[in-house]
Amino acid sequence: MIENVLHPRIIENKDWATFLFVLSFATIALTKSVFENRFADFTKLIYSDKYTSVYKDSSHLMSGFTIALFLVQIISFAFFIQLSLSHFGYGSKTDWILYIQIITFLFYFVMSKFLIEKIIATAFNIDEFIEHFNLQKVIYRTYIGLFILPINVILFYYDNISRSIPLLIIGIILTINTFVYFVSVKNYQNLIFSKLFYFILYLCALEIAPYYFMYYWFTKSIA
């Protein structure tokens, strides 16, 4: 007599991710249709500084264009963080609860950091630099978020992906962030040098310490 052994089939729910990917691409398409010329300049950011020259006023930080693509950026970066954790064995890429935790933490981290920066900028009297610096960061990080969105789709739906790809993307992100810092410092060097002490305090308190403590907490939690 042949004994049949039944094994439960585990079906991973990917519908939530599909919905978010579709929502992100739909938001990009809608933004492109509403802000056609601006979006065209934005896509050329990698080889042209026209966008940063035309839309350098800090009022653009709260425009519909920036807010819409900021939301796509948050979705994209949250996916990338979860996919990176999954590739290195610290979570599941189909775990929607983990994704909610990551995107909630990421959103509140970014918004809290932004508000604290505004308060410190006012206290140190470096509002002009911080406003333009934040705009520069949002522009380039949004560009990165849109760039890695299709990569997230590939990483999510295909399993046989080299572990070097997330590391390569992390390297690119760090390189671009470093570039943004140097460009901002160069553009506002007179203002920075006149308030060098306050700038160093700001740099240590809000641009180094938060990421160091996040890295320290993460490495300790997985040790």
Summarize the structure.
This protein has helices at residues 15-34, 36-43, 50-54, 64-87, 96-124, 127-157, 164-187, 189-194, 196-222. With 223 residues, it is mainly alpha-helical. Helix 1 runs antiparallel to helix 4, helix 4 packs across helix 5 (96-124) and helix 6 packs antiparallel against helix 7.
Q: What structural keywords apply?
A:
223 residues; mainly alpha; 9 helices
Any overview of this molecule?
- The protein is mostly helical.
- It is 78% helix and 0% strand.
- Mean pLDDT is 81; it is low at 5-11.
What is the quaternary state of this protein?
single chain
Question: What distance lies between the first and last C-alpha atoms, to the nearest angstrom?
Answer: 50 Å
Q: Major sheet: size, sense and barrel closure? A: none
Percentage of residues in helical conformation: over 70%
**Radius of gyration, rounded?**
20 Å
User: Could you say which overall geometry the principal axes of the C-alpha atoms support?
Assistant: globular
Order of helices and strands: HHHHHHHHH
What is the average of the pLDDT values? 81
What class would the helix/strand composition place it in?
Answer: mainly alpha
Kindly state the number of beta strands: 0
In the predicted model, the low-confidence regions spanning at least 5 consecutive residues are 5-11
How much of the sequence is in beta strands? Answer: under 5%
Number of helices: 9
